[in-house]
Write a structure and sequence with these properties.
- The protein has one domain (13-107).
- 65% of the residues lie in helices and 0% in strands.
- The protein is built from seven helices and no strands.
- The radius of gyration is 13 Å and the shape is globular.
């Protein structure tokens, strides 16, 4: 199902990681795919309230946690720049779908990065 939120479809997810050669594009692509899948789930499930949104963002955060191994195997890691970019895009997603009172730390509470 194609995404319908114009803000989301125009957003360059993980832009800073793509711009930095330290982060391999094929792994960053997987992170971007997690974020886009999160958007698709939000559009399909239409969560009402932050607790419902957190169920979705926490599942996506755990998928990002699983990417750490892929980053390391490619000679990289999820370090400060990556953490900030990923967290920022989770916050962007919440804002784009109207969850303006979302707290970024709660959105990504199960993170291991």
């Amino acid at each position: 199902m194609p995404l319908t939120n114009a803000q989301v479809t125009a957003h360059p997810f993980l832009r800073d990681l793509y711009r930095d050669g330290y982060y391999p594009d094929h792994v960053v692509d997987r992170g971007r795919d997690v974020l886009l899948a999160l958007c698709a789930r939000i559009e399909a499930e239409r969560p009402v309230g932050l607790p419902a949104l957190h169920l979705l963002t926490h599942a996506a955060t755990e998928e990002v946690n699983d990417l750490e191994t892929a980053f390391v195997e490619a000679g990289s890691e999820i370090e400060t720049v990556a953490r900030e970019a990923i967290a920022g895009d989770f916050w962007f997603v919440a804002q784009a779908y109207g969850f303006t009172d979302a707290d970024v730390e709660e959105l990504i509470a199960p993170r291991e990065w």
